[in-house]
Amino acid sequence: AAKASGKRTWRRFQPQQRIRVVERHALQARLDHAISKEQFGLRYQPVVDIAAGRVVGFEALARWPELGPDPVPPGQFIPLAEETGHISTLGAWVLRRSTADIARLQRRTPHLDPPPYLSVNVSTRQWRDRNFLDEVCAALDATGLAAGTLQLELTESVLMQRTDQIDAQIQALKDRGVRIAVDDFGTGFSSLRYLRDFPIDVLKIDKSFIDGIPHDPQQVALVEGIVHLAETLDLQVIAEGIEEQPQRDLLADIGCRYGQGFLFARPMTVEQGEAVLRERNGHGRTDR
Ligand code: C2E
Ligand code: MG
Ligand code: MG
Ligand code: MG
């Protein structure tokens, strides 16, 4: 009887499901094609020193298609590319293109000391990829970007699915001077032990925590807790998704040094990024 009713349920939902499957396949096929033809764009969102207002770095964010009226959000196409395994190809392109863009930006702004850094999102699947380390090193060598100005972002799921191979890759990257950031911190289930044992440099507090401040006392306490935790573990903190001035003020009070968000700047082209750098960090040696 269970089987029969299961069948009936299936039949009832089938037409709708088929449409979804067809759409999904069509999107996946378009995405595969775009990946093979490198039809993507990158935008760069400034990371700012909250109190000083200066830009300290840029996070590379993938866009598809680069131009046009119907962009597919990365929250949609990145998981699709992860399923097909093509994220490795896309991720390698993101690395090559973003290191080239930011290396050029640094050469065009030699008066900035330290130079603005590049932060790149790396999916769990990429971290498991044996070629990943070589790809990072190749991108650094090809573009001349100093390893110390590259930051790679991982999510808590990588901390929880560590393998010897992932650990070895991360150690090799650290030895080269690359920094490691935990993205969307607070949304996963990583334990304090992982944070202590893993060679992390930066925590990025997820936007969902920032949304609740300064009005929700519980969220304020959580953000404060994360900032103090980071201090204890000697990690930098970046608050994600700052949209309002009161959020900025509270974060500055709490001692959260860095932030990203529409309040400061949206993701932009590298040319716009250069203009923002010149405007906010000055032309001369004012940033010293
Ligand atoms: P993420 O790494 O946490 O990036 C931050 C996201 O928040 C970006 O969305 C950014 O545009 C958005 N954001 C920044 N400030 C604000 C704000 O003040 N308000 C609001 N509402 N949003 C803000 P985006 O570009 O749509 O990217 C979404 C996610 O897709 C990223 O989240 C990241 O997980 C993933 N992603 C993007 N590019 C790449 C990539 O090249 N590789 C990989 N593996 N993942 C990527
Ligand atoms: Mg990120
Ligand atoms: Mg993030
Ligand atoms: Mg996030």
Automatic annotation (TrEMBL):
Q: Which residue intervals define the domain EAL in the entry?
A: 24-281
This protein is called Diguanylate cyclase
**Part of the intact protein present:** 759 to 1046 of 1046
